[in-house]
Write a structure and sequence with these properties.
The structure holds two protein chains of two kinds. Chain A is an all-alpha fold. Helix content of chain A is about 80%, strand content about 0%. The chains are: A mainly alpha, B mainly alpha.
Chain lengths: ~300, ~270
């Protein structure tokens, strides 16, 4: 499955970068290069071969772990991209962590207190969260917390290994901004799943058996209601990766999203290809793990 | 129809959503007529003004009236989002229905491919397409439509699969109708309700995606009054006056919340069981 996904993605990415009106040879040698020099370079880069042959060569190199050489920097693309991916993953994992800590309790409270004020407050929060794109929340967050309050640094990135607390301070705003939409979405899903489960017969049976509300909620309802959350969180990784692109651009974090924007603006074909491929692979792997996790947890419940 | 409207307006989501969407559509239609100022007229003497009787929402870094810019920018932002969503939905609905009707191997291949395409985040996909076509409003529309098609195909397929099992489809097959006829005339009309719900909610995503593209410099170009572009331009001047940043953000939020609520309201109204 992952292999097929990556194969299709590689085809799309290669097709898009081929149609891009950018001549790699001209980009490397500049507008004033002689036609002979351009031809020579095209020959060494294999750009004169038929398209399918270029694709096969590129794919063969990718499979072997060679993602090509950046047209912009002249450095191999792979190491730079993976280094950037590490920073983005830190950002993404912290956001998912914050989201889980907040979204699940919010969803549970809303479901238990359905129709009450707590439920309305939670759904108000989730509508507000879904309504604002990351670039708006990010810009407003910088204005309020960095410019007015001066609590946090506005932009930039400090490696945690260099200055742990400084690094965390730089990450607070980006992580909060990314998790807002996720919190809004997941808390709503948890609420609706839990509301459904609370109306099933086995929950009613457990309550009639004389078990306390808290016990039924913890032992019976939550286990079943939280399972689908795994799938939803995994699918939300798509939004997360998109959000990472915007947030990294605004907060000047040198992650994979920023690398991709720079590559797209510079029409650096190998870097675009590598970046998109890595993002798609991340998404597929996360969803693959989620599927396995789901099946494993589900079985446990059946045999419990 | 009136009974349906009554059901829609009975829920708080449906009522508020309908109100906001009607308000936004009214601004799209009549905005340019009621705008008090020329949105691109510079007034160097009236920069960074706060809200006043003359400028309801104040003025921006060039002394342009923010209220007029928002009224006129509604077209660039909302109309494009609606068109992009409709286009993406049509492509997706066609693929999804066809896949569900064909079934078997073809269905599996189409769906696996759709899954693969969906593994590229839609923002990234839109960025690539815009970069490929060049940054302009129309290209951004095409990009958002293409980015939405796979998701819509997936939803349409799951709805269409349940329709596929209905007797009237089997009857059409028994009559010897062509596949194209059955997909178009028998299946599509019956999968429309859930698709409209999904489409309404997606308009709000499209508004945000458009605004984001403009924000990144790949959608509408200055001096257009597109809302995302207004936020993007306001970033450099937000220390002078927060209003330049806040008002377009509020406008985006109103549109997004409105379509989201309307979608939820429609879902409840179309599905009496819940």
């Amino acid at each position: 499955m992952i292999v097929y996904t990556l194969f299709v993605v590689s085809l799309i990415v290669f097709a898009i970068t081929q149609i891009l009106p950018a001549d790699a040879a001209v980009m490397m040698l500049g507008e004033n290069a002689t036609p002979e020099a351009l031809d020579a370079l095209r020959q060494t880069m294999g750009l004169d071969a038929p398209i399918w042959q270029q694709y096969a060569t590129w794919l063969w190199h990718v499979v072997q772990g060679d993602l090509g050489t950046s047209l912009r920097t002249g450095q191999p693309v792979g190491p730079a991209m993976f280094e950037a991916l590490g920073r983005s993953l830190l950002l993404a994992l912290l956001s998912i962590g914050l989201m889980l800590v907040l979204a699940i309790p919010l969803g549970i409270i809303a479901a238990i207190r359905r129709g009450k004020i707590a439920d309305m407050v939670v759904s108000l929060i989730s509508y507000a969260g879904v309504a604002l794109p990351e670039f708006v929340t990010a810009t407003i967050a910088v204005l309020v917390f960095a410019d007015w309050m001066k609590w946090l640094p506005p932009t930039g990135y400090v490696p945690l290994t260099e200055d742990f607390f400084g690094g965390i301070a730089h990450l607070v705003l980006p992580v909060c901004v990314i998790s807002i939409i996720l919190i809004a979405h997941v808390s709503r899903m948890v609420r609706s799943e839990l509301v459904d489960v609370l109306h099933t017969d086995y929950i009613r049976a457990a309550r009639l058996k004389g078990l306390s509300r808290g016990h039924v909620l913890r032992r019976h309802a939550l286990r079943n209601a939280l399972l689908p959350t795994i799938t939803i969180v995994a699918l939300d990784v798509g939004y997360l990766l998109g959000g990472v692109i915007v947030v990294e651009e605004i907060f000047a974090i040198p992650g994979i999203g920023r690398q991709l924007i720079v590559a797209i603006q510079a029409r650096d074909l190998p870097a675009i290809q590598a970046g998109v491929l890595i993002m798609a692979a991340t998404y597929s792997i996360v969803n693959f793990i989620a599927d396995i996790l789901y099946a494993w947890l589900d079985k446990r419940i059946q045999y419990d | 129809m009136t009974e349906f409207l009554k059901r829609l307006l009975k829920t708080p989501q449906g009522a508020i959503g309908t109100f906001l969407v009607v308000l936004v559509l009214a601004i799209v239609v009549f905005g340019p007529m009621i705008a008090p100022y020329d949105p691109e007229k510079l007034s160097p003497l009236a920069r960074y003004k706060g809200p006043s009787a003359a400028y309801w929402l104040g003025t921006d870094q060039y002394g342009r009236d923010i209220f007029s810019r928002l009224l006129i920018g509604a077209r660039a932002t909302v109309v494009m989002a609606v068109f992009a969503t409709i286009a993406g939905t049509l492509i997706g609905a066609l693929i999804g229905t066809a896949s569900a009707f064909l079934g078997g191997r073809a269905d599996e291949l189409i769906m696996r491919t759709i899954d693969a395409v969906m593994s590229i985040p839609s923002l990234l996909f839109a960025l690539l397409v815009v970069n490929l076509l060049g940054s302009s409003t129309i290209n951004a529309l095409v990009a958002v439509a293409i980015a939405f098609a796979p998701g819509m195909a997936r939803i349409t397929r799951s709805v269409a699969l349940s329709v596929r099992k209905q007797d009237y489809v089997n009857a059409a097959i028994a009559r010897g109708e062509s596949s194209a006829y059955i997909i178009r005339r028998e299946m599509l009309p019956n999968v429309i309700a859930p698709i409209i719900v999904e489409m309404t909610i997606r308009v709000s995503f499209a508004v945000m995606l458009f605004a984001t593209l403009s924000f990144l410099g790949l959608g509408a170009q200055p001096p257009a009054a597109e809302w995302g572009l207004m936020v993007s331009e306001a970033r450099r001047y937000m220390h002078m006056s927060a209003g330049i940043l806040i008002w377009p953000s509020v406008a985006i939020a109103i549109v997004a919340v409105g379509f989201n609520l309307l979608g939820d309201g429609l879902r409840d109204a179309l599905n009496p069981r819940t």
